[in-house]
């Protein structure tokens, strides 16, 4: 499996596969190294170390807690409110495991067994008093050292990222209750939070409350099928009659997403190793493929961009 640079689910699966097949990978690299493969020798030196092994085990375990949440966030019709609730659950699980010595004990013993398969002894990295960038963490045993140097910082970082990206934006996501299928949940206790969040883009509070009342009344007496997605809701909202509703729905639709249809169409399994710059360029070309392009003007700009060995001539 390839290691995705951004997808947590793919990263966790890749790490699980790598950890499971670790002894076989070491043996394969040793065989290639003995045959004179310099690149294999370099890879072997990188992975045949205890710091690599224990980091692999800790990272794979911590990221596995967020796989379901990651898959949920990559859905086309993701429920942001439900995602924020699930993020809170994942955060609580990570905090409980962080404070449970038995969890780290099991991870460390698993790392020791994996290291023993390739004849590697647990050890602490060399400390240096004058090097500030070295992991100079005081510890009496290797188990305590790697818990403080790897496990605690990793869990704390992931918890902070989930909090900043999802939990801190939870009030923004409450605007999703304006979708007619979920409008019953947009009560007086919820109504003030999205208004406070989007206040700079909305009308006065009194006008906002009146508009929400009309919006709720409209759909409570409507016989047509209620929209269940933000895009469908925007199509049914008249901007002249419901400007605040349109504004909130538009902001929610334009929030950065974790995946997009053009990206999934461009980056197939045949292009799994594509870098970010090329992926972004191809995605833009796919998204705006219907836009007319002056090919001759594009070629002229390409030719004049810098001195090229080929001489281009135009009729």
Tell me what the structure shows.
The chain has 315 residues and is an all-alpha fold. It has helices spanning 8-20, 22-34, 38-47, 50-64, 67-73, 80-98, 101-116, 142-165, 170-173, 188-197, 205-220, 230-236, 243-253, 261-266, 276-287, 295-304. The radius of gyration is 27 Å and the shape is extended. The model has no long low-confidence stretch (mean pLDDT 85).
Would you spell out the secondary-structure blueprint of this structure?
Elements: H1 8-20, H2 22-34, H3 38-47, H4 50-64, H5 67-73, H6 80-98, H7 101-116, H8 142-165, H9 170-173, H10 188-197, H11 205-220, H12 230-236, H13 243-253, H14 261-266, H15 276-287, H16 295-304
Helix pairs in contact: 1-4, 1-5, 2-3, 4-7, 4-8, 6-8, 12-13
